[in-house]
Design goal:
By secondary structure, the protein is mainly beta. About 15% of the residues lie in helices and about 45% in strands. It is built from 1 helix and 8 strands; from the N terminus they run H-E-E-E-E-E-E-E-E. The longest helix has 20 residues.
Length: about 150
């Protein structure tokens, strides 16, 4: 029955067209909040700190409520370290993270929360990187005990 099939296609097309046109400025899925950042993100940084080459890598963990923790190893201290801090997120998916070690980073988040880019805006250095969510768990939740010399890889 061609007329009935055509009527179904027109109805589906029309309904989908109106859904697509409804609230053209409403992109609520493209909005962010502190809840957007939830879980642990793996990162690696290369740059300059205090005029010297610098590299570090580790986990950034966000609790979805404005608290952050970081577990990392850097080319300066050459030991595993951890710190905590807080973060804010604006609805345009930008934000900042202030850590207890006096570091401030500005960041930009994918609306899905799976990916972010950040630039350190404190101190005397050029440090920027991106991070990808690797777990919904808080891997850097608690400070880890430092590795002793017999455990460290040389």
């Amino acid at each position: 029955n061609k007329p009935a099939l055509l009527a179904c296609v027109v109805t589906l097309f029309t309904a989908n067209s109106f859904d697509a046109m409804a609230a053209p400025g409403d992109k609520s899925s493209d909005r962010c909040s502190v809840e957007t950042l939830q879980g642990s993100y793996l990162y690696s940084i290369q740059g300059y700190r205090d005029g010297k080459p610098y590299a570090s890598g580790g986990f950034l963990s966000f609790d979805g409520a404005g608290k952050a923790a970081v577990l990392w190893t850097s080319s300066v201290e050459r030991a595993q370290r951890s710190t905590t801090g807080s973060y804010t997120v604006h609805d345009n998916c930008s934000g900042s993270m202030k850590l207890d070690v006096r570091t401030v980073n500005q960041f930009y988040i994918a609306p899905s929360g799976d990916y972010l880019k950040f630039v350190r805006v404190s101190g005397d250095g050029v440090i920027a990187t991106d991070a990808k969510r690797v777990s919904r768990d808080l891997l850097a939740r608690q400070p880890s005990p430092p590795l002793n010399k017999s455990q460290a890889i040389k």
